[in-house]
Amino acid sequence: MSSSAKPKIAVVESHSNKLPTLHEGEISPLAANDFEISCLNYFAAKDIAAERQVAVILGCFRSQAVNNWTRPAVSRTRLIALTFSAFMAEFRTKFLRPHWEKTTRAQVLGSRMPENDSFSDWATNVEALHSLLIGTSAELDMNQLRYTLEAGMLPTLATLYGADDTAPAIEKDKFDDWRAAVVVIDERRSFALEENRKAIEHELNLQKRKAPEASDDRPYKEKKVFGEGRKGSSAKPTSTASATSSTSSGRRCPVLTADERKWLDKYEGCNKCRTFFAGHEHADCPNDFPAAEGYKPRTEAD
């Protein structure tokens, strides 16, 4: 194994009706705590007398380091004579990292409530971490634990907590009552946040539904045209050029009569615009045909 590899952490294997097993690896404060609790549960279930408790658990270790400590006859005799609590105190001193109590207490004091956690869940985790210190010189009393939880609250919860008259007024030695009151305040906070989230989500959905109607960037075919879509309507958009042509020209004027042709030929006129002395012929006429409305046939008098 390389020197930079992380050490294997010891695991406690618990059994419902048997003693626990502490496996090989680095022993953490949590592993020591789990082992102690499992042993105490076994002692209670099997009614093991106090003077026999250490002797019973010496076979629970699969750790070479622990067995090296308990195997020699002299050590074994001395350890068996200890109470279980004294054995666990010596066990922690020998196998846990130096100053683990200070390190763990610093973690408790520095804990901060995560943004997405409830106060109840976070407080439970802090209490579990603090339980590793029970029986040591680093253990906090209930008032100190309360102050720690107050200091680590989320700002939104701390504001509601400060404005509330129930939880802060509870006597400082009634930790469980105080904790339950803060849980109620936090549940109100969580409910208000959820309602606010739903309102924002609803508003965003409304805006999304309105957005296509307000946009001018849609393709032409998606935009409504006046009269389009009405029952029985066949109106369709027409081009500007077609509309202009239809308006300006109207119906074409009548076909030239024989007399008109005669007079236009005589006076060098144009058969298209029907002007005498026009200076051009039908093929190169720059003008439109005369409008049909109000048209009068050409005569020599013109």
UniProtKB/TrEMBL annotation:
Biased composition (Basic and acidic residues): 208-231
Top-level taxon in the UniProt lineage: Eukaryota
Annotated region (Disordered), positions in chain: 208-252, 280-302
Residue ranges, compositional bias (Low complexity): 234-249
Official protein name in the record: Gag protein
